[in-house]
Fold this protein.
Amino acid sequence: MTAHDQMRAMLDQLMGTGRNGETTKYQVKFNDPKVCKSFLLGCCPHEILTSTRMDLGECPRIHDLALRADFEKAQQTKDYFYDLDAMEHLQAFITDCDRRTEAAKQRLAETQEELSAEVAVKANSVHELAEQIGQKLAKAEQLGEEGFVDESMKLMEEVDELRKRKLEAEQEYRNSMPASSYQQQKLRVCEVCSAYLGIHDNDRRLADHFGGKLHLGFIKIREKLAELEKNAEKRKEEKRKTARDRDRDDRDDRYRERHREQYVGGRELDRRSKRHRSRSRDRKERERSDRDRDNRSRSHRSRSRSRERRSHSRHSSSSDKRRDRDRD
């Protein structure tokens, strides 16, 4: 990876997918099912064990530092419970590793010369002391590299004491069996990473093993799994409670939506009813106005006819009087 690529990865990890208005190269969000939830929590075995004897290859799910940054920011305001997804992933992985460890032990039991119970106890004592020496040597080297010289020197003193105890245990083991059998390498399987360890391995070989990327990677995975399992039941209950609350909120939202639709529909019916009543009043008023107009018209015609009759009557009476005067 070039310096430019390293700088870009650092910026992605710090600022997420929104850096400079950019989007992730995978065109997905961190909550997409295709994104590795174990990677978001920093415990994906595909990433931790890369370039080791047990390199698992590329993870089938998406790994992107920018998505991890987005998740860490979003997790501050909302709980996504991805720790439960990661726990299930790690449980499946560790279960498979433990199965391979038991198979390796079985193969050793079938191929190596069987030891008596007394000799086996002494051999195990040598193995355990050798492992403690290797672990403390690896830790002392790490502390020395980090600048903690005093702590490193203290561990080296403990290593010297363990070496003395190991020499005594090896002497007891050697004296408990024939020389020809003692020269044979007695192997055991590392309970952490399932690698083979020999009873005659020197301190340097053991330190390289216990301080190596494979062994430390398995320690990180197992410790993370133990941490997740410790709070698993509590987290599962919280997830169920959150799901119930979300379902209740969804039901409330649907109820409010239906109520709003009914309310809007009711208002529409009210408006239609008002328009109908208004139209009815207008029609009645028009009919009443028409009737009034007709009544006035009939009354006017009636008065006109009455006036005509009275006028005609007066005229007739005048004519009769003139005729009577003329006869006289």
The longest strand covers residues 187-189. The beta strands are 187-189, 196-198.
